[in-house]
User: Fold these one by one.
Assistant:
Number 1:
Amino acid sequence: MAQVQAISNDHKLIDGRAHAARMIEDLKLDVRDLDSKGWRPHLISVTVGEVDEVGLYVRNQRLNAEKAGIEFQERNFPASVTEAELLAAIESMNVDPRITGIIMQRPVPNHISVHALQEAVHPLKDVEGMHPSSIGKIVYQNLETGPCTALAAVELLKTTGLELAGLEVVMVGHSEIVGKPIAFLLMAEGATVTVCHHRTRNLAVHSRQADAVFVAAGKPNLITQEMIKPGAVVIDIGINQVDQPEGKSKVVGDVDFASCADVAGWITPVPGGVGPVTVAVLMRNAVIATQRQKTHYEVLLARSTKALQ
Ligand code: NAP
């Protein structure tokens, strides 16, 4: 049974940037190994239209890919592109053996279904872990790859060294991309998971019981000090742009960091927590995807050679 220390004024900051940097460093060897065998991971980032906030994410992904030695290429389509045209473009990337991973940047214009695009990406090239078969693997306890933010958030919980089996965890938010996969990942680790959402009657009643609270709601200051059990872990996934005096803005999470840090045993900052690890997990997924494609082609080759004999 996990023990969560009851400590106050002694919070431990979970440094996502440092963790991500170590992950990227570790990936370099795998990338070099794949490259030496003619299988350098090669990502394609697909954007639709001109969306400023996507630009920052893509630059960050490119930077981390370059650090790890992964090839990174951008393809931008005009906002007027049709869903059928995009699906055809994804299909051509699926069959191109030089491309080992496809990233569908969000948002996309309303006339395009993001689900249709995610489903169109070949499961072997699904580095974001958002294809239905990738999500399904999590349900079947195959946890090596999966949605990047969910894996990143759970990975940061693991850095605390707490035993996950039996841990009481509250997940605030149940989106397909974050909350639901986190709940599945934690259940697979043996945690007892309570999932809360905007219709939960009394969020604090649940969160105050938890050894670890994950928050992905997109609501600044949703979680405050009195909602956290002393010594608990707080993993803040929210990313919110809030206006500041003098027309400036800053990025904050969903947790009132200053007050929660006083009681939490461990807490992630925003920025510098889950965000950088999400990008590092994307790069790790890219490496694993390339390894799987290499194995897949080797098996096919062996089969066809045997058939010709
Ligand atoms: P989403 O699809 O809008 O889902 C938000 C979830 O929060 C929903 O399940 C919603 O419940 C729940 N919620 C909203 N208000 C609530 C409240 N007052 N009390 C309890 N639950 C509430 O958002 P998302 O895509 O999961 O993203 C959530 C946040 O994470 C955003 O700030 C986003 O920017 C951030 N994010 C960060 C990363 C990263 O890499 N760090 C990646 C993805 C997203 P209902 O469905 O019942 O309304």
Number 2:
Amino acid sequence: MSKPNILLIGPYPEWDLVELEAQYNVLKLYEAEDRDAFVRDHAANIRAIATRGELGASAELIGNLPNLEVVSVYGVGYDAVNLDACRARGIRVTNTPDVLTNDVADLGVAMMLVQSRGMIGAETWVRDGSWAAKGLYPLKRKVWGGRAGVLGLGRIGFEVAKRLKGFDMDIAYSGVSAKDYAKDMTFIADPVELARHADFLFVTLAASAATRHIVSKNVIEALGPEGMLINISRASNIDEEALLDALESGALGSAALDVFEAEPKLNPRFLKLDNVLVQPHHASGTIETRKAMGKLVRDNLAAHFAGAALPTPVI
Ligand code: 8YV
């Protein structure tokens, strides 16, 4: 029997590609010079899409693939996959939850520490001779014992909160409802009130149309000139223009961001600011976790083609 054709939207690590190519005929969209023509030429034979969290699969692409059966996302976030288009045609969608939770939480907490203690500038201070020439590095803000707000206490938010307890922080959270498993944290339903309460506001919400710009100008201003915003979710959860305005004016103290509206391109205003830590969307980017994510992508595809239950279905 010939191998099923799958459309790979963006590159995967070589170790995943080797495994995928053993089972499937992998059509690499990202290598095509003319992507529309590539899709047109292969459309009739494509049964699956393998994609990444931030790349997803648009309604247009799904609409151009008449025999598509399944979309397997390498990532927990599936906001970039048009679920309505999939639902309408009974196309299954899978993601890679759980395996990346701890790494994403680790990076979020690390970003808070790095930014609050000015570690990037401190590194430069040593390397460029400022330490020897000018003496002590400027004093920074403490983290331990501070007040943290977690916007979205799902799997990742919960792991962030767990880590913050180790810094003796007072933790509040916001979400659809108070959680039974968070009795030692304060529930504050309104994101503006949560931000007013917090020194450090973590955005850990699964993104959707409903959460777009949930971190609004009002939330950012409530966090205030001493506050820090940390985003390890999706850029769409934040009003990026309002964030830039607030960082430039000092209405917000600082930010630590792993995700951006137009990533991998950044609004150039970010690069002029020294009160923002910018990271290249790599919260899940460890070898161990990415291997586990790749395996889950393949396990979902294999289950689909074997007619078995999908390990981690979205729909
Ligand atoms: C990316 C992510 O998928 O889990 C998610 O939702 O966005 C990430 O893990 C990863 O960066 C690979 O592109």
